[in-house]
Amino acid sequence: MNQPPPAPPGRAEDRPARLTVGVVGAGRVGPALAASLALAGHRPVAVSAVSQTSRRRAAELLPDAAVVEPAEVLARAELVLLTVPDDALPDLVAGLARTGAVRPGQLLVHASGRYGTGVLEPARRAGALPLALHPVMTFTGTAVDVQRLAGCSFGVTAPEELRMAASALVIEMGGEPEWIEEAARPLYHAAIALGANHLVTLVAQSMEVLRAAGVTAPDHMLGPLLGAALDNALRSGDAALTGPVARGDAGTVTEHVAQLRHHVPGVLPGYLAMARTTADRALDNGMLRPEQAERLLEALAGAPPAGGADGTGRTEDDR
Predict the structure, then answer these.
(1) Cβ(133)–Cβ(113) under 8 Å?
(2) pTM
C-alpha cells in the first residue's frame, strides 16, 4: 500500500516539541519570543499576565498557553522567559528563588539589555541555568514582532558551559548572537537606547515641527529622507553628516532657533543639544573649522553670528 508523502520538515507542528516554555510577564517582548520558539518546535505551556492588554496579547500570540501565576509558570515549564521591566527583575528573581519556585536544571532566561546573568544569581544558586538573551529590536506586542526577529541581533551573556545552548536558542528564534561581557552590559544597553529610543523621540519631534509648518503628511515626507540618512550613517558614520550645522551655516541655525522658540518651544532644548553635539563631532572630524564652530556655538547660545551674509563668511556657491 502506498504511504502518504512525508509532511514538510519546516512545519513546527510536524516536529516533536523539545522544551516546554513559560513566560513571566506578558508585555511586548515575552510572548513574541515564546511564539518564535514555538515555530522552532518548542511548546509554550504557561504565561503570567495581569492586565487586560497582556491577557489579550497572550491569547493572540500564545493561544495554547495557560494564564497562571508566576510560580505556576515555573512549575510547568522547562524553559522560562522572565520578561518584566528591568527595575522589577531583581526582586522577581529573588522572590521566585526564595519561595522555592525555581527547579534545578531549569533554563531561566531574561531579555533585559541592562543585566547579564548576575541578576539571576539567586536562581542559579537554586539550580537554575541562567541566560541573558536581549533582542536588539523594538517591539509592538503583535505578531509582526515574530517576523522581525529574523536576522535580529541578540546581546547574549551566558556562563561558558551554556554558551552553546544560548546560541542555539537565539538561532532558533531567527536571531544572531552577539556575545556581551557581563561588565559591559550597561554600556551596551546605553548604546542601544541612545540609537533606538532617542531616534523615536527625534522623529516624533520632527513630525511635530512639520505639522506646525503646515505639512499634512510628515511621515510621508520624512520616510525617504530618514531612510537614506540612517543608511548613510550606518555605512559612513560621521562622514554622512549634512545640513547647516555640518556646513557651519550659523545664520541658518540662528533662524532655526528663533522659529522653534516661537512656534514649538518644547522642541528647542532637544534641537540645541543635538546641534551642539553635531558641531562637536563635525569639529573633531575636520568638517568644521574652529572659527565656524565658534560662530555656531554663539548662534546656539542665542547671540547673533559674526561673518558673512549667512553667518559663515561664505556665499551659497562656496557650499
Answers:
(1) no
(2) 0.83
Residue 212 cell numbers, joined? 506646525
**Burial category of 41 from C-beta neighbours within 10 Å (exposed 0-12, middle 13-18, buried 19 and up):** middle
Q: In residues, how long is the chain?
A: 319
pLDDT, tens digit, 9 for 90 and up, residues 2-61: 444 333 333 434 334 489 999 999 999 999 999 999 999 999 999 999 999 999 999 999
Distances (CA, A) of 59 to 45, 143, 254: 12, 12, 53
Query: Sorting pLDDT into bands at 50, 70 and 90, what band is 282?
Result: very high
Sign of CA dihedral 156, 161, 162, 163: positive
